[in-house]
Amino acid sequence: MTMLPETTTRKLGLVIDLDTCVGCHACVISCKGWNTENYGAPLSDQDPYGANPSGTFLNRVHSYEVQPEVGAAQLVHFPKSCLHCEDAPCVTVCPTGASYKRAEDGIVLVNESDCIGCGLCAWACPYGAREMDAAEGVMKKCTLCVDRIYNENLPEIDRVPACVRTCPAGARHFGDFNDPESHVSQLTAERGGMDLMPEQGTNPVNKYLPPRPKDEIDQIDILAPFLEPVVQEPKGFLGWLDKALEKI
Amino acid sequence: MTHHQPKIETSPKVSDEIRQTTCYMCACRCGINVHMKDGKVAYIEGNRDHPVNKGVLCAKGSAGIMQVNAPSRLRAPLKRVGPRGSGEFEEISLDEALDIATGWLGPIRHENPEKLAFFTGRDQSQSFTSFWAQNFGTQNYAAHGGFCSVNMAAGGIYTMGGSFWEFGQPDWDHTKLFMLFGVAEDHDSNPIKMGLGKIKARGARVIGVNPIRSGYNAVADDWVGITPGTDGLFILSLVHELMKAGKIDLDYLARYTNAPVLLNGDESSPEFGLFLRNKDGKPQVIDRKTGKLTAFDKPGVRPDLHATYRHDGITHRPVMHLMAERYLDAQYAPEAVSERCGIKPGKIRAIASELARVAFDEAIELDIAWIDFRGEKHKKMIGRPVSFHSMRGVSAHSNGFQTCRALHILQIILGSVEVPGGFRFKPPYPKPVEAHPKPHFGVNPDSALNGPHLGFVRGPDDLALKDDGSPARIDKAFTWENPMSSHGLMHMVISNAHAGDPYKIDTLFMYMANMSWNSSMNTGGVMEMLTDKDENGDYVIPHIIYSDAYSSEMVAYADLILPDTTYLERHDCISLLDRPICEADGAADAIRWPVIEPDRDVRGFQSVLIDLANRLNLPGFTDEDGKAKWADYADYIVNHERRPGIGPLAGFRGDGTEFGRGEVNPDQLERYIENGGFAVHHIPENASYYKPWNTAYQEWAVKTGIYDSPQPYLFQLYSEPMRRFQLAAEGHGDRQPPDHLRDQIKTTMDPLPIWYAPLEDAQVDLDEYPVHALTQRPMAMYHSWGTQNAWLRQLHGRNPLYVPTKIWEANGFTDGDWAKVSSIHGTITVPVAHMAALNENTIWTWNAIGKRKGTWALSEDAPEASKGFLLNHLIHELLPPKGDGMRWSNSDPITGQAAWFDLRVKIERTNAPDECQPAFDRIKSPVGQGPDELKWKVGK
Amino acid sequence: MHPSPSVIIFTTCSGLGFGLLAWLGFGLPDVTGWVAFAFFAVAYLLAVGGLLASTFHLGHPERAMKAFSQWRSSWLSREGVAAVAALLVMGAYAGLLIFFDIRIMVLGWIGAVLSVLTVYATSMIYAQLKTVPRWNSILTPALLLAISISGGALLAGQITEAQVLLPIAAIIQLIWWTRGDLALMQSGTDMATATGLGKIGRVRAFEPPHTGTNYLLRELVYQVGRKHAIKLRVIAFVLGYALPVLLILLPFGHALAALAVLSHLAGIATSRWLFFAEAEHVVGLYYGKR
Predict the structure, then answer these.
(1) Residue A231, domain member (yes or no)
(2) Which residue ranges in chain B fall short of pLDDT 70?
(3) What is the ipTM of this complex?
(4) Whole-structure pTM value
(5) For chain C, what is the domain count?
(6) Which domain holds residue C12?
(7) Which of A198, B846, B855, C280 is deepest in the core (most CB within 10 A)?
(8) Alpha carbon B321 to its chain's center
(9) Which of C210, C211, C215, C289 best tests the B interface by mutation, with the highest count of B CBs <10 A?
(10) Segments of chain A scoring below 70 in pLDDT
(11) Cα–Cα dist C132/A125, whole Å
(12) Domain with A17 in it: what CATH number?
């Protein structure tokens, strides 16, 4: 049914650290690889060697330029995939019940054999997290690697989403937001994890850690004493050197 | 209402089998787990146990599956049937191909081996390919370092016995301040990303110095949007501030560097400015305890940074005096360099101050006792937790060598090299210049070369000059034009061979180098040189053999194509003799092995070389009876010994338990495969830092086979080899530079780092060409390879030219506009995009996205071929003529490093053409074109 | 939003068809036999034709039956259920009327209400979407219902009613356009909230995630030029409302009536093209589009 569960036992999701993401697209391709080979239909690519290559991806990395009132412009790399919202509008619009949110962990999934490919869930999602696969005609989305995180054929350490396992900078974290002691809950609390488009009322589970303040080095006065000249004249340096060497 | 949900399988079978090998989607050499289903590659992920990537993997690595199935893979050996450049070939058997090659190479070797020029591009088996070239007997061999980052490599080795990336790394676990200069985002990429992640998790500060604030610089806490080519000046200004404030590690300088070494002060002497050496040739210092002249390494000596030595009325001063004299000069004050560097004086000062604060106020101590090479015992390891990393952005300028040296000087005066929290070498480094070979170029018919091709010159005596003073090598490496060109000058080979300067060659043999496209400056010119004919209608470069796995732009320009395999279909060895995968905590090497078999008539290039060597009866490859020593590359990897007990692979030697030195182990490859494709041997804790001077490390290195005897040395703040070249230019010695180069050598070969403006600046009208133009490689693409990859090309299928706000507004650009960009050499017309986080006088684009029509199995209307472009068309391998009749190369005058980033341009708005200009004709694809749709799934 | 022909045909035709059915259900015009057959045939052609057109954009039309299952939560499902119910009830009503000359008024009323509910459900598919601020308003069902009922009146030959209802629909259309033009701005969703980076400074999209296009851009991000849009609005307004009202104010004639209907249909189709083409989906913000 496309009703949302009242509550979910666990609230699994990602923390994405915008202060650390270097925009390398590792998560994008790792996701593409895992989800092409695993859950549901492969993520197909149309015109892969032609003029308009266009494939299905469940995770894409945007980049934004932010111009502060004063100081240099900043560049922020911005990975985006399904945020597994608590109030997921994509689920309730589904006419067939193919889209659902799991009661045990809150993962939003598409049951591909029930999907008629109407696309309404993609219309309802503000984040662009759902993409219709052009070859298969069904809606694809991030599964939070539901076929990895509980997979007993994988070593326990690997039971995380493919994007998290591969992220070279460690900018992606996976865990249970219902557990206040979890790494993701703590990171969110410490670093001011934020929601995207909170006004849309979706209550996203995934949180984004904002970039730390930048370009503050030349505003710190306290550093000045470190550059107090030892002598005023260049020639005096050797004298200082002699005295300094005495102390070693 | 109740909630219903389907039951799903959460524990599906992942794969039938995991085969662990080494990635080759770029040059990082990460360990990968290749998941197999039904004998096919199903999924690729990082190997958690691997020393390089510890489980993570970048976009390229994860997209390997699309490289292995790429329609661009060459399918069989090819013989050219149309004119060069047409792409018209016929498929032939490997046997026929090798017969043709032998037919060309045999006579050359018999008459004059130097008529073969053998150059490899992004090859990772240089110890093997150079061994082949050496046994063939030609001196004309090198790999791609000359157009990549030789300045960085040579600058590091000449200064401190190692550089960044394969040579060393920041102490990511302890560093508290990390400063990154001009790094291409693909170099050492996973380790740097992992390191940045560690620093970020601790909340430590990252400072990025780069005209472009993308990638690593985007996450840097502080960005220094420096003017290209001025890094050296900025660094020396930091040195100035630190010295002026006395914020330098005097104890470190006195003990571990040549700052206290005395220089010959006799201006009339042919040794003026060289080290004052004792009878045994050892540099001397004044011992602070006795005040006496002493060899630098005498047990117990405390070198004095200040004291001078007076003898025969002449004062001999230590290096430290010269440094003080030079760097305290007001020309390096922040105010003096600010405008040129595009950095406010306050910011320079703030960075110097932060370096000082972290290095000295936040110093760390590890409770590890160690003994130095003078026999002194230390209870602790003191750490200066300031670290640096740098790469091509600094390197690819004509002042790059001196800039790299300047950066090392900065690291060293802070006492931050080989200390906790600072920069750490990776085995086989540290390794002083003295432990490296010199260049060899002794050619004789039907004989091997008299030694390794490439090396490190110590002075004019080591230059590769023929008896008449002309260059011995086709690329003119190790000549007065660029004396310290340790990696050769691959970018000059085609140009010189075409010009017959210094001589003509017969066969150009290249591997994995896209010279008719993105790997050359002056791309259009190179195409002409490759297709140019003489008055008889013969090609000026008579024969071209090329080996590549894919249908690259270069394929069309060869006469004979030897098709290589993909990286999952081959044996390789990432060897300690070459560019190993070591980490600061251990020596390591790795293999590739065929996790799948090729489905085409192709063969790993190294095995092809062995076959060719056997057919040519090359010494080293065949015994006295002409019998082949090795059947293929796998055989060579296991059974070849470079020195007794030392072979291409260090791991699992002898009975399988020995590392480094040991008998040949016939099961070695199996043991590597069982171990995940690599071997690692850890450095003992008491040897983990202070390696160049740490007796425990030196002993470990000898035991491991890295050295044959301990090699402690001093960091060379002052470079004696450079001073020797200067002396020659001043008129000393028998070997004299040509007069037109005298001034250049005197100025640029300064033994203490200096900064001079990029050479192109003096050759072009800077009012007409005021803009700097750069390229960067995106993290998700490796040179031209990414384009054939169905997943990666969707990320970067075309490349706009990024324009800073000032230039954007001045030209009235709007989104979707095009611009004409001209250098003194050429013009391109390309799409533009706005970028504010960019040095205001710099434009840039992604490198090697643009492709030639008909290549890489793409359709002709692929965006790479219409909206993708190369900046290479604007860059020439030679500087504009000065009117002196000389060919002045667009390179660093010290190392010959291609000065890609010296480029100056002008930019103007123009009407949008149909496609980027210049546009080239279509090449006929030898492999056809890829399919219209991909639904890749191996398992059911 | 991508103005896909299948959705434009679907909403335009089925809106008009169900509008006509509603009038017929209330016995306006009070026809029987072959005349009734003609009216119902037109209504069914429009309604069913529209519904069929809507299946063309499905990835798996063969699974369409599954879409009736989620009427408790999904407006699309409700629309399907209501449409089938309306068509069945009206089918029974029409069959009795045409072939047996029996008029069961209650059945007609139920069918009429179901027809109106179908149009309402259709309109709510769009109106419910917070992601498309231009649609996310009570004015959207008002507009679609007004168009459906006034168009139905026109088609049903209820001239007097149409003379009142068409101007009302026209006014709602004008209000809908005016509100719609400000909707995205007033929704509170912008690049700053989309990225959460607004606290640092002004946010601008730099590089798109992929240099090529993708499903989201094709489906959700459509840009129509401002001048072009104004021209089309004028055409939609004149053809859809003004001209039909003028034509039916003239002395009645079948040719004029047919012209009025065709003009209305063309105008509403134009309006519907704009309904989609001008609708900004907030996901466009991630791509720096509007």
Answers:
(1) no
(2) 1-3, 184, 186
(3) 0.97
(4) 0.96
(5) 1
(6) 5-286
(7) B855
(8) 34
(9) C211
(10) 1-2, 220-224, 234
(11) 10
(12) 3.30.70.20
